[in-house]
Design a protein that fits this description.
This protein has four helices and no strands. The protein starts with a helix and ends in a 5-residue tail after the last helix. The chain has about 160 residues and is mainly alpha-helical. Keywords: Signal. This is Trypsinogen-like protein 3.
Length: about 160
């Protein structure tokens, strides 16, 4: 009995030490994040433009997939298609599902400012520490990749 209680106490003391170390590291990170450099306006504009083009590419690809899959879904057996439609309608009327959707939407709305702040912090860190060293290489790589993306996955039809 004494050996087991000693092991439990040793385990708990190790966990307290690990917890204390994790707390100290978390505090250091939070202090460091308070002093993040602001990103350049040009970098933010470039990022927003690339993000916009990326979303356009995704929407274009989604449209192509939907156009390709649409005729296949029409050819499905009426039994299978009707069963899927009935299930979706039942799910949309389910209060548990509706509350889960409301909770998810609320969480996404609450998290949006945090995500934006983290994105700006990341851009600031990139612009201050990484961009001076690899910025030109990354820009050249993105420019060369755009040529292939425009062929395979264009932003606009």
């Amino acid at each position: 009995m004494h050996i087991n209680s000693y092991c439990v106490c040793l385990f708990l003391s190790e966990m307290n030490g690990k917890l204390a170390l994790a707390l100290v590291l978390a505090l250091q990170v939070s202090v460091c994040l308070c002093q993040v450099p602001e990103p350049d306006k040009e970098l933010v504009e470039k990022y927003e433009a690339m993000k916009s083009v990326f979303y356009k590419r995704l929407m274009n690809a989604y449209g192509k997939v939907q156009a390709a899959v649409g005729p296949m879904t029409e050819n499905l057996g009426q039994g299978q298609g009707q069963a899927a439609k009935d299930y979706i309608e039942e799910l949309q009327g389910n209060p548990k599902f509706l509350s889960a959707v409301k909770i998810g939407t609320g969480l996404a709305q609450e998290a949006a400012p945090l995500v934006d702040k983290a994105r700006m912090a990341g851009l600031g860190l990139y612009g201050h520490y990484v961009r001076p060293h690899v910025g030109t290489y990354l820009d050249e790589a993105i420019t060369s990749i755009k040529v292939y993306l425009d062929k395979v996955l264009p932003a606009e039809e």
